[in-house]
Fold this protein.
Amino acid sequence: MDAHTPTAAPLPSPDEAPLDDAIRAAGLLLEQYGHVVVAYPASLPVAQERRLYTVRSVLESQRLALVKLELPPLGVAVLVRQLRQLSICDFGPGVIASAARLLSHYVYAGALLHSVAKLDRVPVGLKSHAKSWVPGAQFAVLASPAPELIRIGSGDRSAAPLLTGPDFATRLVIARGQAQPDWVTGTLAPHWQAQGVDEVPLPAASPGWWGTPKLVEFAAFLPDIAILYQLVSSVRREACSWCGIELIGDLCGFCAAPVVPGGPGGPHQADQSRILPSGVLGHGTPAG
């Protein structure tokens, strides 16, 4: 992380602090910044998600956005970092909150696993389940943007099938559990044409999310704030018909109201899930 990226402010969970402390912490953030975007994974325990909604309800504030992310732990960390990068740009809080859904389409998040026997967050066939009990078996799993699973054989790994990767330039971050990252760094990264590989500590939630501690989690992402800015700027902005805040996409991150087609913001722009502005380079595409 560079020195210009703002740090995150974690809200205490029910196991860490009483509700009053969480309300006080959120209230102080609202006083200091005006608006707060709380990004959390869809895998968050029910009690912790309920606390977030309770905090917002007690504060009676639509200036606190709750953004649920359908990504594995390392992918969540990558996306939160991107939102923090964008927070220093000239985007309003509504655009920042709704940008999470757009940017999640550009995070390729997965893991190298020694077993898929307990993996229940990505579709796994019975044959793969059976093979996971074979000693030495390894599986490469892609959770986002589209689920995919392949078995890594013990023979010539260069001839084995590989996960579908991004068709634009990215950087790869890995987090090592109780497994070696050789296949990720030596085979997957070159195949995905990653422009560099960084290693970070494994998120605490990763073994539970993937169903095993024997893993190497990875995520390919857009690291350049200029490209992130261009990507978000390329989407038509709307005014929320309920709270009036400016946003992108079809759902307000603050009040959760859907954008009304043909409403004050005008008609929707076509498919916003795969916008590729000129600053996002596909593999082999020269810079313009």
